[in-house]
Amino acid sequence: MNTLTGALIAIAIITYASRPATAQKQSTDWPVYGGQLAGDHYSALTQINRRNVSQLRMAWKFDTGEQGGMQSSPIIVGGVLYAYTPSQKVIAVDAATGKLLWKFDSGIPGTQPARGLAYWPDEKEPRILAAVMNYLYALDPRTGKPILDFGENGRVDLRKDLGHDYTRQAVAMTSPGVVYKDLIVVGFRAPETPPAPPGDIRAYDVRTGKLRWSFHTIPHPGEFGYDTWPAGAWDHMGAANNWAGMTVDVQRGIVYVPTGSAVFDFYGGDRAGDDLFANTLLALDAATGKRIWSFQGVHHDVWDRDFPSPPALLTVKRDGKKIDAVAQTSKQGWVYLFDRVTGSPLFPIEETKYPASDVPGEVTAPTQPLPLKPEPFARQLLTENMLTDRTPEAHAWAVQQFRTFRSEGQFVPLSVGRQTVVFPGFDGGAEWGGPAIDPSTGVIYVNANDIAWTGGLVENKSTGVGTDLYQNRCALCHGDNRVGSPPAFPSLLDIDKRLTTAQISDVIHHGKGRMPGFPTIQDAQLDALLAYIRTGKEVEIAPTSDKKELPQARTAPSESDFARPDSPQMKYRFTGYRKFYDPDGYPAVAPPWGTLNAIDLNTGEYLWKIPLGEYPELAAHGMAHTGTENYGGPIVTAGGLLFIGATIFDRKFRALDSRTGKLLWETELPFAGLATPATYMIAGQQYVVIAAGGGRDPKSPSGGVYVAFSLR
């Protein structure tokens, strides 16, 4: 960025701040991921409303010029929109015109999702806090340049301060941290197979980048919850991390932190116990990191049932009294509601018995907490009469497959040698987009996936270095047979025809999309894994540092040529994520395949429920309103509107009546809008903006475009 552009941005910010109060009222920011620190995705703006939303038109479009898809929800401060490109470059765009003001390129290839940024609103030295892979940067919002007195030359390496050799850690910050006073509280994404770092929640000084506090989600000796793990688990177990983001009650100084499962996600024979604080909603003192209260949603998780999104704060009415509450959605299709201060459930939660595991060495929890209200927003038990009838052939195929599965509802442990139905699937129920809440009514709006997946276990038998590495690191997503489940889990068959050896090695080390990096796989281990990925067989190779070509069969290496594996091989491995799709590529269960739900949290009753999205080719033949998989959440406004993209296949951006769910306006985006939108006002003009990038439909291209709409 040149000096003139930087000066213009500075003048714009100074001019905005010095406007008379009457003029400033005509501008409203969206300064926090999710709108505000309450995480409710709510705007008090009313210029765009039920009566005139049909007149919305595109105000501007900014094309990043990149491919790969986007999940970024922008923030808007002082008339400037800050966001990511698909490759995790940070951009500042004039929020009224879409003109690029500056771009920050860290020089680090961004291969993980980047869902948003954080902003520190200091009058003298405001900061944009942006994560790129394992680094957290402090940027000057006027210029995009790193603030060099933050951390080490403007950045903090999030692999450090975890109590282990940081060079061997795979850490990526995919959701933004939350700012509380002069702290930025962060989580990170971690591998879902060992080795994985412990999922410590950490707070850094926004000025200096120094660590101020840590909360151990795998408790250390003497800490609460230590006895829910095997002795010494903190020293070698991993994950139980916050990847989904957090929410802050600023007035009370409480940060609410949802966590995911501990590794390994689908077999826990090495971590007997309930495993606090995995799969937990934590309420921590934002200033110190001390635990105030916690609720574990899944004991000893072996179903990958992470809490998938930041919770939302609201106030509900009970018996004529107002109660400040926190709402957490889940992949199981449930909403949990708690007193924000005490953690007391505001609807009954009952510990319910579920089947024990029949896998040798695995001891699952005898009970799991089941919320009795509200009713689930996704179906819970797949039966034969719920299978697709899209065509007679698809139905017959689905019945044949279904009769080979085990389908008994929630919390049925996976079995060895047989596929178990997980419904709703591993990607929700609710997903990372999070819900919207209207604080004036106490109504929560949540979009959900409602398709079935299957999963199972198989015994690991060591047959060689490449095989072992593939089984332990790769089979989780790409399956035993390397066919994956595209596009989220791509096939590895013939991968050497699509990527060079150097490119494959780079993905292994740094990850890509949903895949974490495995930086410890090096040298002869890397050669062995590369050979297995290419052939599906154990190939005897000699150690080599030449990565220009895929290794060919050569003289067998000696045992000393291979480094000791960095974690013991798991006794059982996951057979891979498998969507229950028919041979034509459609869900093998009856619609709806995706829904949008409105629930009154004062009473726990549903106001409405509708299918969300459709397949254009099915709709053209009379099968409309099926719903589809959807990613990215809604926002709700005081104008009575609910805005949402999210649908994978139809690329639509919609506005609905928040009272009824009636569609009031829709438009087609250049790519699917798999991100949460934002709304703001500049000089009396309200805008709604969404990132359109696609990336989940294997038949459609991906991109990176921000599109804003207004009434004129």
Walk me through this protein's architecture.
Strand 4 (80-84) and strand 5 (90-94) form a beta hairpin. The model is unreliable at 1-24 and 544-566 (pLDDT under 50). The radius of gyration is 25 Å and the shape is globular. The relative contact order is 0.13. It has a five-stranded mixed sheet with strand order 1-33-34-35-36, with no helix packed on it. It is mainly β.
For the termini, the CA-CA separation is 30 Å
Provide a count of the helices.
7
* Spatial order of the strands forming the largest sheet: 1-33-34-35-36
The geometry reads as globular
**SS strand fraction:** 25-35%
> Total strand count, please?
39
Can you summarize the main beta sheet? 5 strands, mixed
Helix coverage percent = under 10%
Name the structural class: mainly beta
Instruction: Summarize model confidence as the mean pLDDT.
Output: 91
> Stretches where pLDDT falls below 50 for ≥5 residues?
1-24, 544-566
Q: What is the rounded Rg?
A: 25 Å
